[in-house]
Amino acid sequence: MATISDIGVSAGINILSAFVFLVVFAVLRVQPWNDRVYFPKWYLKGLRTSPIESGTLVGKFVNLDFRSYLKFLNWMPEALRMPEPELIDHAGLDSAVYLRIYLLGLKIFVPIAVLAFSILVPVNWTNNTLEKTDLTFSDLDKLSISNIPLGSPRFWTHLVMAYAFTFWTCYVLKREYATVASMRLHFLASEHRRPDQFTVLVKNVPPDPDESVGELVEHFFLVNHPDHYLTQQVVYNANKFSSLVAEKRKCQNWLDYYQIKFSRNPSTKPTTKVLLLAPRVSCLYARESLMHYYIMHFPYFIKQTGFLGICGARVDAIDHYTSEIARISGEISTEREKVVSNRDAIMPAAFVSFKTRWAAATCAQTQQSRNPTQWLTEWAPEPRDVYWDNLAIPYVSLAIRRLVIGVAFFFLTFFFMIPILFVQSLANIEGIEKAVPFLKPIIEMKVIKSVIQGFLPGLALKLFLIFLPSILMIMSKFEGFISLSTLERRSATRYYIFQFINVFLGSIITGTAFQQLDNFIHQSATEIPKTVGVSIPMKATFFITYIMVDGWAGVAGEILRLKPLVIYHLKNWFLVKTEKDREEAMDPGTIGFNTGEPQIQLYFLLGLVYAVVSPILLPFIILFFALAFVVYRHQIINVYNQEYESGAAFWPDVHGRIVGALVVSQLLLMGLMSTKEAAQSTPLLITLPVLTLWFHRFCKGRYEPAFVKYPLQEAMRKDTLERAKEPNLNLKSFLHSAYVHPAFKEVDNEGDESDEDLVSTKRHQSKHSSKHSFSSLAEDPERSLL
Amino acid sequence: MATISDIGVSAGINILSAFVFLVVFAVLRVQPWNDRVYFPKWYLKGLRTSPIESGTLVGKFVNLDFRSYLKFLNWMPEALRMPEPELIDHAGLDSAVYLRIYLLGLKIFVPIAVLAFSILVPVNWTNNTLEKTDLTFSDLDKLSISNIPLGSPRFWTHLVMAYAFTFWTCYVLKREYATVASMRLHFLASEHRRPDQFTVLVKNVPPDPDESVGELVEHFFLVNHPDHYLTQQVVYNANKFSSLVAEKRKCQNWLDYYQIKFSRNPSTKPTTKVLLLAPRVSCLYARESLMHYYIMHFPYFIKQTGFLGICGARVDAIDHYTSEIARISGEISTEREKVVSNRDAIMPAAFVSFKTRWAAATCAQTQQSRNPTQWLTEWAPEPRDVYWDNLAIPYVSLAIRRLVIGVAFFFLTFFFMIPILFVQSLANIEGIEKAVPFLKPIIEMKVIKSVIQGFLPGLALKLFLIFLPSILMIMSKFEGFISLSTLERRSATRYYIFQFINVFLGSIITGTAFQQLDNFIHQSATEIPKTVGVSIPMKATFFITYIMVDGWAGVAGEILRLKPLVIYHLKNWFLVKTEKDREEAMDPGTIGFNTGEPQIQLYFLLGLVYAVVSPILLPFIILFFALAFVVYRHQIINVYNQEYESGAAFWPDVHGRIVGALVVSQLLLMGLMSTKEAAQSTPLLITLPVLTLWFHRFCKGRYEPAFVKYPLQEAMRKDTLERAKEPNLNLKSFLHSAYVHPAFKEVDNEGDESDEDLVSTKRHQSKHSSKHSFSSLAEDPERSLL
């Protein structure tokens, strides 16, 4: 049991380290050469240009304005200054609502903390139960429920407080749900025209021997939505095509680099070395397959010959890449023809667009076919949000994937320690020496040996935990969700469950998750809350330390962006050749809903569980929420660049998890109370989860539809408005290429933008012809647009 | 432990009693005076006329054709002869699919029984574990799993069998789900035009200070479904009105009776006695309120004066009732004006009809308003199926009602014994003597005393069990479901849960439900299946007896229709005055889904639980299913008259409960096996419920939409067909009065049918005026149809 001074020291250290982070951040962010690391969002928006290009030579790299160092915390008020509507406009609704989760934490826990400290703490403090016992205890424990004697009538205070906290939390949750729902509806309503408003994703198109998928979809919707159907876009399996496009992009980049080099120094023609592995074989097929083999398996080795190539013939770089680009362009167009014309490359899914939002809304919400596993319609995700690989999974396979992943996640959560223990048992000094005997002399050195021995056992676990979010993301992808937003939401749910079991329960009841599971199975339903509940007050100090290290220091570290900073400068020095490269090296990243939200939820859980038991935890959590709110607000304004916009579709998950945490806290309190011989409170405590769950169902019915459905009233209003404003709008051309596979799109755009001289006429032709064959598929009987 | 001969005797008795029932039935059904009891369905269809009217005097009452007594079982092949499509046409899809539940029982259990008797029974029999122990045992137990020694490898047989039974059950279930789903879709598709295909029920219309509900609904749908909206019908709170209509119906009946009496015997004018409690008070209000007070509280006392009245003035009966009818008709029209014009009598709900099925299908499946608790749309139930009283419950009230009923049902299930024990403690001889001292001499008589003492303690419980379905139905009504079919389905679910806990678990682990609950809470998750599982083999004989008494004899008793028979003849002798009365006395009743289905489900549960443990139970269950199938098929063809047609909407419930029973059986087997020291089978047994639950989810996704949604493809097909067939159809007039409150309808129809001479001109006028005021509300801007 840590004393208050122990906690104080720990808090001091953590506050100091957070402070150091913030100071370092304040210094680094005003340096011009870090500008792209700390303000990428503004670069992407085109609102900021590099300060390096202006100013003196020294001023280019070091900020000499000392006043800017003095105001080193002025980013905080700056971050808070931007009003919410502007923030939504700047970073999207997802980000703005994500910040509200932190605010929600403050809204819930500040009043609870005030109440707890003015009532619960005095009630706990004015006992001397702990002093009477032989147990060692600290002043911190005197503030907790442990200090109340068994069967004391003082437990009524805790009971009343549990009710008060529950009602307050539910009240805030309900108000927040209502606010977010109306924000979402307002956002959807005030948005300008977007393709996904008119479009529905149709999956599981049944196979038809006589018609292609495109024709089939068109006929089906012409028959079943005759007045509303506008156009459709079939989905291609374009994985090979996209890799070719990526390939070409890389060559283009090299070409740009050498051209700049040449224009700066026209005297020496730049040269590059080319491996002669892929000679101009006349036989098209052989060359292609050889190319693809190498592209697939050794992309860097083959292509970065100019950089890494040591052997090989030295050729003129500009000529080489120009011809390479022409060649790949040719291949791209061939591949494109193949994809578009080959029936097997067309997946049984399509994006169907309608003339009005109303029609799209009705189609997305209704069942189309007698067979409920065919012609499944749902809202098309935003084009950026589509996860293209999963669009063609049939129903039965989807059901089996769910089962497989469900079972796999169960084993991952409860048995992940087994492979890690196995790896740890292998990864000892002797094992390494056996595997790589020539390293033996190095390993046997004392310093290295001790490092390995101290480092290795933890390494496997650490690596697993680092890769866990990616593993969960892969699981979600395998499960077959079709948009990035759902993938992230699903991963977040799984990550939270994992943390709940392995961090929360794992810290309270020591032991692996599997041992806990085994215990729980062999305990009665009333025993489980008791077992967990009893240990809760004892773990308060542990969680306080956890909050300070993981929360405070973690958040302060987040603002420093150490990893992106290092990577940016490394890239900048070694890899960046063109302006485009520099932009790509910027990598602003996203909020990372799938890792960030579960972390916040853990704090909600801790806060709610400890609110009645050991209120001393609350100030630490409040500080976390406040700091995180400011930091993330700053990051969202200046750094992150969301990949998609789901319109805060994640809120039902957030709400549900907080309600879940509330129920857990109530059950654990019930368990704890029953060991304190305050059994007369049990019926009153049982009522709490019943009411909370009822509240959840009520909210679900009341607000959740706003996040999954699109009311016809709204759709109709927007349609009418639009018709009045723009009576001659050509919606079809607007939607024409909205849901084309991004690789196709890139080729088309590039063709429009890139220097026409560099492109061979052949490619030019093929571009047009492929575009034609493309649009012919998307064509529909000509009908006027309302 | 009963021996095989004990079971044999019991079976003999029960078979004999079932046989007696069937013989009595065979005798009674051929008697002409019972014709209306045993063939009411045909009377209602107008396909059968009373045999009493033809034939000789004796032949009218007793069937003298002795050949018909000899073929006393010929109703069985007759019942089986009608092919299913004809049955659907004759009795509706609900009834036909209901019969399939019994067939499903046969399909599942016959192969299981064959397999079990050819493999499991020999494996169990060829042990001598029981003989080695000191326990008393019977030959029956030698057939069960109890005869296998602890830890024997023979348990692998049971494990494999559990898998085989599960796969077979799932296979049959899936096939059956597919069949029923396609039957439903076929039924909906081949049906002729019905108002509910075009109509959507709109609930929770928001209040508007400027517009009436009718106007508001019309405007909302004209704006949001401009091309599809046809007409609407607001819902009135017409409870008072309906009681007036019922009142008038009774008077009309008396009038008919006296007129027939008078026409047969013109010499004496029939007279009746009238109590002078309600004189012709000139003040309309006073008279009305007095009238209503009496009508509400003493309807029989006041109105059946002609029958029961002893005191009072004797008046001419025909004159009296003619004037009474005129008076009530006047009141009806006043009340109607009041209901139609009074804004408070209009409930915030409406039936909205569309021009096409397609439009109704889209509207029913989509969300209309921003606020998801307003403008809630759902499929309108069939007009007969509507439960009018619940149409106007607001969202919040609905949520609270759900909570209240949920809690109430929990207490009903687990604590129902408490009030019964309380009543039992009061209802003893001393208690009665104290309450009604003047009965003391009678009660003290020895015979009566012993009857009371033997009878009273069970009476409260028996009464409770008799009224339980009604209690559950009242709970469902309070919960706010809007159609009779959902009410019945909900009650069935609750009744099944009650039976599962109080009959199934209550019989296996003796004790009240609350004691079980208490035990379960204090046991671990692995203990519960063990506790229950261990007791299962021992209770086999009890359940065999239960099946014979409740199943065999119960079903045979069902065909006898003893209660309707007695009531019909009583009514016929004492109450029936006119032909209409006789028709009403017929009371064919319905299948009674809310009591019948849970009973079948209990047999599924028993069959699945005992299939592996004591296969000896299976033949008894199979016999039940076979007998019940024949009996209910006969009853459905000849007797029952369904009140509504839901298109087999109950099948997902049936399927779900069988899957639930399967999971329970697997868990209990797991518990049992773990006590048999066959723990190595646990992982394999855990896989079973996981797979079964996954199967359930798969089926839910695959087939359930067919029962809750209406595919647009179907709707469009029917619309197109109809447009081609009947291009000039006036749909508006077809829908005009489809969803008028039945009381309004009755008045309108009556006016059309009844003898115009008997009706005063005033009423005639009022009828027209009220009709006018009515239709004016239902009117909408004139637009052409399609």
Automatic annotation (TrEMBL), chains A, B:
Residue ranges constituting the CSC1/OSCA1-like 7TM region domain according to the UniProt record: 401-673
Sequence ranges assigned to domain CSC1/OSCA1-like N-terminal transmembrane in this UniProt record: 7-176
Annotated keywords: Calcium, Ion channel, Ion transport, Membrane, Transmembrane, Transmembrane helix, Transport
InterPro entries: Csc1-like (IPR045122), CSC1/OSCA1-like_7TM (IPR003864), CSC1/OSCA1-like_cyt (IPR027815), CSC1/OSCA1-like_N (IPR032880)
Transmembrane segments: 12-30, 101-121, 403-427, 447-474, 495-514, 602-633
Chain positions covered by the region annotation Disordered: 749-786
Record has Ribonucleoprotein as a keyword: no
Chief localization: membrane
Biased composition (Basic residues): 761-771
Listed Acidic residues bias regions: 749-758
Lipid bilayer topology: Multi-pass membrane protein
Coiled-coil ranges (or none): none
Compartment(s) where it occurs, according to its Swiss-Prot or TrEMBL record: Membrane
GO MF annotations in UniProt: calcium-activated cation channel activity
Residue intervals of the CSC1/OSCA1-like cytosolic domain: 197-390
An annotated GO cellular component: plasma membrane
Top-rank taxon, per record: Eukaryota
Family: Belongs to the CSC1 (TC 1.A.17) family.
Protein name as it appears in the record: Uncharacterized protein
UniProt organism field: Linum tenue
